[in-house]
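Final report, closing paragraph on structural work. Over the funding period we assembled a curated collection of sequence-structure pairs, and we close with a single example.
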Amino acid sequence: MKVRFSEAERERVASVAAERRMMVAMYVAAAALSEATLATETDDVGIRVTALRELMRAHRQLRGACTNLNQIAHCANVGGAAGIDIAYLEATAEELVAAARAVHAATRDLSR
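Its predicted structure, as stored:
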């Protein structure tokens, strides 16, 4: 999804996001979802934003780990990775997939 801002709006959004120590994309997402969907009577918006920040960070780390695993698997497939324990790689891949699914589900649930 792309969002268009005037130069003044872009500067204001970036400024507010920086003040709140948030990435611009995360700030825009949180603002777009508004308090009506981010908060309930028993839930604080700040807690949800913090949780969203942590989930986004975990998602980036998982994406990086999956990229690294893919590169290792590629080396193993072309014969350039002597001594790699394939069973270990498979188990690690399964753990990464399960963690990625959990992060995805938590992110989806948080944005409702």
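Confidence is low (pLDDT under 50) at residues 38-42. Residues 15 and 26 are 13 Å apart (CA to CA). We thank the funder for supporting this effort.
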